[in-house]
Amino acid sequence: MPGSFATSFDRIHLRWNPFGELDPEERSALACVELGDHGDFLRGPRRVLQLVADHGRGKSTLLLALHRREFGAVPYTQLHAGDPRPEVGAHPVDFVDSIENLGFWGRRRMYQRAQSLACTTHRDLSREMRWAGLSVRTIRVGIESRGDLERIVHGRIQYARTGTGEPPALPPSRLAELYAEHRDDVRTIEHQLYLDYQRLKETHG
Amino acid sequence: MAKCNLSLEIANPKEQYVPGDTVDVIVHVDTTDSVQCKDLALELGWRTHGTGNRDIGTALTQTLFAGQWSPGEDESYRAQVTIPELSAGFPATYHGRHINVDWHLQARADIPWAIDPKAEARIFVSPNTQDVPDYEYPGIWPTEPVKLAGNSGCLVALMIFTTVGGTVALFYHPLVAVACYVVAAIALAFVLKEKALRERIGEVGFGVSPDRPAIGGELHGFVQISPPGRLDMESVTMTLTGTEVAVSGSGTQQSTHRHVTFTQSATQAEHHTIESGDLLELDFPFQVPVDQPPSFKADNNRVEWALSMEVTVLGAKGLLAGKELTVGWEGRREN
Prior knowledge:
The complex is a heterodimer of chains A (205) and B (335).
Chain A: H1 24-30, H2 38-43, E1 47-52, H3 59-70, E2 76-78, E3 94-97, H4 104-113, E4 117-121, H5 126-131, E5 135-140, H6 146-160, H7 172-182, H8 186-203
Parallel strand pairs in A: 1-4, 1-5, 2-3, 3-4
Chain B: E1 4-10, E2 22-31, E3 35-50, E4 56-69, E5 74-82, E6 94-95, E7 99-110, E8 118-123, E9 144-145, H1 152-169, H2 174-201, E10 203-209, E11 218-226, E12 231-248, E13 255-268, E14 273-274, E15 280-287, E16 296-297, E17 301-313, E18 319-325
Antiparallel strand pairs in B: 1-2, 2-5, 3-4, 3-7, 6-7, 7-8, 9-10, 10-11, 11-15, 12-13, 12-14, 12-17, 16-17, 17-18
Helix pairs in contact in B: 1-2
C-alpha cells in the first residue's frame, strides 16, 4: 500500500483526527472538567457521588478524571449489562461506571459493602442510596455553554497537533451551529467534528 | 520541572520502512536531579486511532538501561530495531476514514513514585509490494455447494410470532387473531415461493481463488449452476467489498461505525437460458486495488473483505450467497 505521512493528517499539521476515540488515560488528561471538592467529599465515610446524565454528556469522562487525578490507586470498574457485581469495599473509594447495569439487589449489596462510592448513572438513584445509609451528592453532568464546548474542541486540537504548523480552523459558525443543534450532547458533536476533519484532510493538499 | 527528560532521535530517517528494515534509534536522557530508573525501555508498536476504541500492539520491547542517573547528566542510548513481517497482528500503517493504524517507537523511563517520562516518534511502515505473486489459475474450480438465501429467515420468524400471537389473541380479540393468521399465511406463502425458486435454480457452487487474495493482486469468483429443468436467468452479479468496521464505547453505549472502502460489481449471464441438464459456469475476475487495506482484525477495529453473489431468475427476486475473504499482502494459497 503506497503512502507516507505526507498523505495523512500530517499535511494539515495534525497527528490524527482530533475527534477520534481516546484511551482512558488521554480522556482523563484532556478532560475539561471541574473536580471541585468531590475528592474531599469522597474521602469521608459512607459517601456516594453519583454523576447523572444521558449518553454522551461526559459523565464517564468526569469520573475518569476524578479517578486518575485523585484516586489513581483504587480500582475503576466499567460495568456492562449482564456483568457480575464487582467486589467493593476493599478500598476507601470504589469507582463504578454505569452502575445502573446492575440490578436493584446487586446495587443494594454494593451500597452496603462499599466504604465510599463514585459512580455514573443515567437515572437518579439517590433515593435507594439514602435508604442504604449513604450520604449522597448528585451532580448533573453536561456542558453549560458554547464556551465549554470551545474549550473541549480547542484542547482536542492542541493535543493532536504535530507542531509543524497551524491546523486548519473550523469556521466559527460551525461550533455555534453544532451547539444550537445538539446542546450538551458532546459525543454527537465530536462525531460530527470527526467527519468535518476527515473532509478537511481530504480537501487540503 | 521534571527531573528527567527524554527525547528520541532516528539516526537513519526514511519516509517509509518495510519489513526487515532496521531503524537506528538514539534515546537522549537529560537529568536535572539524581534519578533512579528501574527500566529505560524502548518499544516498537502500533496503535489505532479513529472513531473506534483504541487497539494497540507491541512488536518488541527492549531495555536500554536500568540504574542511577546523576544530576546534570546527558546520556544517549543507541538501539537498532528491525521492522517485523506484516501480518494480522502487525498491520501496515493505514489511514482510512474510521480506522487509522500508526506505528511508533516509544522510549519510557520507569521512575518509582513519579510520572514516567516518555518520548515518541512515529514511523510509516509499508509492505514489500514486490511480494505480490502472479495469479495462478486453478486447475479445478474451487467451488463448494452453497444454499442461496432470500428473506425467508425473517419470514419464518414473523410466521411463528404471528401464529403464537394469533393463538393467544383468539381468547381475547378474535379479529386480531384473524389478522395475525392472515399475516402468517402470507409469510408462509412467501417462504414456500422462495423454496420453490431455490428448487428451480438447483445446485449452486460458489468459490474463490486464491484462498488468500493479495492487495494489488487478482482474485476470481467462480459460480456453477445446474438447474433440474430449463431456467431463464435474469443475471448473476458478484460484488467484492472492503469495509472498515470500528466499534466505539461499550455495553449499552456501544456504537459500530462502518465505511465501505471499496466495492466493485460485475454481472454476467444476463437474460441467459440454461437448458435442462446443462451446467452454467461463470468466472468473475477482480483486481484488489493497491491503495486498499488488507484484512485486519483487532478487538475494536477491523477491515473486512467479502465476495457476495446474487442469482436472479427472470421474474423473481434475487437470492444471495457470500464468502468472507482474508486479503493479505501476499497471495499465498493455504493448503
